[in-house]
């Protein structure tokens, strides 16, 4: 997928869980290559479900999700790992490997997709420089601040040059000024061409950035606005 136009399209997507709970209802939207999209909505609105469908962690009940012309609902189970390589993911709780250094955490993401050690030695220092962690390469996660740990997790998410980066509450565990720094880093990555979808409750950040805002409420899109704000009418 790298380097190819990524366009995400949800076509009449519905998702109900086994208990009958409707998590997403009749979602129709398109996200173009290079966009930065905030996904907002109160707890239970359907943001995590939206992300899980994109990653194929969950399957749609009905409808299609098309990424770069491919209907991902049709990808067979055995091809899911390969599909996921094209998407970087960042979580609220960082999810770093505690027994690996910063360098090793990022290198590991390249090792598991079979990159040569020569490529790894060239790429990891470059990415650590980009996220401002060159001097922390030999540190372990527990020796870092929350903001630094999140930078490592962002480095790991982008080291294999995904076209799409999904950030699920990436600033949720950070104080406001650190959250702003992480936001700036994500904007920087977006300016370099990576499409970003960020689920968040961080009203201040959303209002400041004035990027596209998609708001969910009870599984429905209740707002989709260019240069939007956090608030939406239910
Ligand atoms: N595995 C599941 N089985 C049954 N119901 C589920 C499951 N996962 C989520 N739900 C329900 O689907 C709805 C949407 O949940 P989802 O986790 O997508 O919301 P969210 O917007 O991500 O919330 P939060 O901000 O709290 O993470 C909720 O009502 C939730 O209880």
From TrEMBL:
Gene Ontology terms: biological process: cell division
Primary location: membrane
Topology of the protein relative to the lipid bilayer: Peripheral membrane protein
Sequence ranges assigned to domain ABC transporter in this UniProt record: 8-234
The protein's role, per its UniProt record: Part of the ABC transporter FtsEX involved in cellular division.
PANTHER family (UniProt xref): CELL DIVISION ATP-BINDING PROTEIN FTSE (PTHR24220:SF470), IMPORT ATP-BINDING PROTEIN (PTHR24220)
Protein name in UniProt: Cell division ATP-binding protein FtsE
